[in-house]
Amino acid sequence: MAFWCCARFELHREQVAKHFLALAGFTTYIPQIREQRTRRGRRFDTIVPLFPSYGFIQIVEQWHAARWSIGVLGLIMDGIRPATVPDNILDDIRKREVNGIVQLPKQRGLQAGDPVRVTGGPFTGHLALFEEMKPHQRVEILIAFLGARQRVTLQRSDIAQVT
Q1: pLDDT (tens digit, 9 = 90+) per residue, 71-112?
Q2: What is the 3-state secondary structure (H, E, C) of the chain?
Q3: Measuring CA to CA, how many Å separate 97 from each of 2, 34, 56?
Q4: Distance, CA of 136 to CA of 53 (rounded, Å)
Q5: What kind of fold does domain 3-102 have according to CATH?
Q6: Among candidate residues 151, 144, 146, 116, the one with its CA nearest the CA of residue 130
Q7: What are the domain boundaries of the chain?
Q8: Cβ-contact 19, 9 below 8 angstroms
Q9: What is the CATH number of domain 115-161?
Q10: How far apart are the two ends of the chain, measured CA to CA in Å?
């Protein structure tokens, strides 16, 4: 009986593991996404694994050869055998693919007026309203302070959206 399991690969060597697993007769699935990165001030798109250092292997008869394949650090186990990944999970991921790239839903991001909580700096714990994004990963918020709403500029990492 064939089943899918999850494997942990060596860091940045998913394609090496995929190659050697294919040589051993295993079918693999490593979902990928398009990610925007910045290097030296320039933005570019790159294709990276959806789950870095992880992938899925279809086990038909024997799983030990997959466990000891080059590039594989281990299989996610359920006791003494690999944990089974339900087919519908992989089908759901595959349904989101366009030309082999998984399309994730766009994050809405913060909009003016959204409630946020300050998580760092002198106003830690205060509730505020998001006002706008500023350059260099900074945000402007409106915080109730001394009886009035004051504009405060903080690092983006110092706020969290209140849901």
Answers
A1: 999 999 999 999 999 999 999 999 999 999 999 887 777 888
A2: CCEEEEEEECCCCHHHHHHHHHHCCCEEECCEEEEEEEECCEEEEEEEECCCCEEEEEECCCCHHHHCCCCEEEECEECCEECEECHHHHHHHHHCEECCEECCCCCCCCCCCCEEEECCCCCCCCEEEEEEEECCCEEEEEEEECCEEEEEEEEHHHEEECC
A3: 23, 11, 16
A4: 30
A5: Alpha-Beta Plaits (3.30.70)
A6: 116
A7: 3-102, 115-161
A8: no
A9: 2.30.30.30
A10: 44
The token duo for 92 is 């759901």
Gap between the Cα atoms of 117 and 128, Å rounded: 6
Q: What are the residue ranges in the chain where pLDDT is below 50?
A: none
Residue 45, CB-side half-sphere exposure with 13 Å CA sphere: 5
pTM above 0.70, yes or no: no
Burial pattern 26-36, b for ≥16 Cβ within 10 A else e, equals bebebbbbeee
